[in-house]
Design brief:
By secondary structure, the chain is α+β, with helices and mostly antiparallel strands. The protein has eleven helices and 19 strands. α6 packs antiparallel against α11. It is elongated, with a radius of gyration of 24 Å. The chain starts with a strand and ends in a 17-residue tail after the last helix.
Length: 424
Amino acid sequence: MKYPKVPLRELCESIDYGYTASATEEPVGPRFLRITDIVQSHLNWSKVPFCFIQERYKAKHKLRAGDIVIARTGATTGWAKYVQDPPDAVFASYLVRIRLAKSVDARFIGQVIESQIYKDFIKQNIGGSAQPNANAKVLTSFPAPVPPKKIQSQISGILSCYDDLIENNTRRIKILEQMAQTIYREWFVNFRFPSYERTGFLDSPKGKFPVGWEAARLGDHLESLEAGKRPKGGIRDEVDGVPSIGAENIRGIGRHDFASEKYVSKEYFVNMNKGVVRDRDVAIYKDGAYIGKSSYFRDGFPYAKCCVNEHVFLLRSSGRRLKQNFLYLWLQQPETVQTIRSTNANAAQPGINQSCVYGLEIVLPDADIADQFDKLVEPILASIINLAKINRNLRNTRDLLLPKLISGELDVSELDIQTPETNG
């Protein structure tokens, strides 16, 4: 069974460009949805900034459940997000908002537009410019499949099961990371570690710390610190090569955007003498606007075999007082990130070099406390990675199912799937 296709614009009740304003963290008006917010796997409204907008413009740009917003410029042109249960919010000028007619299931169309199928279509239709962009006409020229509305809802129900599982696991990952961070701060910031009541404290220029602990330079406890590299002319889009992780994917443990990955050839990878990721490597984003961000590559996630480019440092600890679990959690502390960024606050091009990293000051526990902490947080961090792997498999399965479902190759008409009305 094949379903008919019509241009996306024919399914729209309205098509609108976003509002031009400056984003602010001050709650001066509604939330201000931007491209940055919709390209995340999960739209976290608490992280979306605000903007000031006059009431006469607000009605036109106000978001409601069932809207779909699409990026129209930059490297993420064609990335989209189906909006559900929005707070008081408007959308920015680099987005196009489509509001669908009642004749179609908005969530179904949203799932299609969020897919790689739509991204590939837009990429093919905007040419190869260095700074891609597309107008509303291009973005709504996509030939959207239109099965009967009941079938649309059934397909949406199947795909939503995967989305709900992914969302649930994402919440669990967040809780687990908060647990690990809370334990770290209790032990090593507040100094409420086991037997702390019976431990003496020493005065130092950097403040008090427990007897038997060490105020050290990070470099004294690193086995290696190395950056990656990339071929002359840049990294190629060859999906049969080896993944080369850049700054955009230094996002914290268990977080990885596989859709944005770049690759180096297998021949190039074999000849790399630095920047090849080993199990349990900790990575730091070393230059650009967000220096100091870190990630933790372990247990085969995000890949069993990969490398980093020249914008990323890989750190490997000595494993004695400083272990990889501790190192990652220490780098995640706001105080550590701020210290790293302040090492060159006046630089025209923000960045840190090896000397900066080696010179970072760190207070390390004695060997016994280090071992106890490592054993306590290890199952928490391992669980995060396990959930991240499950989410990747769920996404892969969903993405394999989607084209078969929307093409009619898989017939769902006889399935008993109850779904709510999704048009706002």
